[in-house]
Amino acid sequence: MKRRWLVLFVWWGCFVSTDRRGVEAVAVAPGWLVHTAIGFSAGSAGAIAAYPFDYVKSVLQTEEGRSKYPEGGWQAATDICANQGGPLALYRGLVVNLVGLAPEKTIKLGTNDFLRPILQPTLGIWGEVLAGACAGLAQVTITNPLEVVKVRLQTSSMTVSETIQNLCSQKKSVLATLYEGVDACGVRDASFSAILFPLYSHTKTFLEGAANHHDEKNALLFFGAHLVAGSLAAAPAAFLVTPADVIKTRLQQSRNDQQASVPLPTSPSREEQKSKYETTPGAGTSVVSLTNIGNNKTKEGVKRSTQLFSRRPIEVDDDVAQAEQRPTNFVSMFRSVLQNEGIEVLFSGCLERVVRSVPQFGITLAVFDGLNGLAIEHGW
Fold first, then answer.
1. pTM, two decimal places
2. Fewer CB within a 10 Å sphere, N or C end of the chain?
3. Structure confidence at residue 127 (pLDDT)
4. 277 backbone dihedrals φ, ψ, rounded to 5°
């Protein structure tokens, strides 16, 4: 019992300071804990607000989703709500996303805040771009495994536990499975952050100047300026990196036909293989077309004519054929989509992605700056 109280006392001593007058001051948490809490709070607020758009965007970026919902996001959203459990179905996979927000946003926002003042004085605007790109690459270590689980939940009918079991049952290692599409994820996140942070910084400075001119003591006005700056910066960044996001979704989506949330169409190559037959003329006979039977109109004559052919379907190993045809990296998937479906497919779900990113990063960056300012003000 005494040991327990001693541990509690030491723990409290790490968080509490006392001034010279002996008055107990406000508890002060370690810097890393404060930044983690701020990153989680800011990221959660943005993710919850915009997650339904992310769900619809992922569905539309799959080949199956494009064929099932040709009219776009509204058709997909209404169908999902009607057939998969109501509006809450649009939040499928949200828990997985929230689990990784604390480390992801801490790494992303913290890396940018650390590198920007180092690189910007010497490289100017390119230093800001480089700092943002490094922040995006750093977050991939956390983002990619969560994206794999989230995308598979969004593109299948599996539960979280079933998805994890499915990932663990793959022939390759769990680590390799969780980092599928890591190259595409890296291209997307690095490009997005390289565009987002410099735009946000300069737009925020401009709007803060306007807010100062109007009312420099109005905190709500400054929060609104940050919200608008984050939204304006996120829109072009989200649109321009949509091709990388489409490739990432294709590489990470669920490929289990029985558990797909939208029916998986049979690819033309497999269909052609299944429709091919070996036609072997019988020994010592001539090939006669059934359409040119001539005067032989009796059933017995037709039967004898058809017996001239022996039809045996060519066996196709679906799993092997599908595995061989499926691209496994960013470059091969990019070429496959471009050659087979056209460049317009690379911008599938771009509207939903922009609509999702505008409120998400507007809220995230505004809340992050607001909480960060409060932490500095209180000496945290």
1. 0.68
2. N
3. 94
4. -135, 150
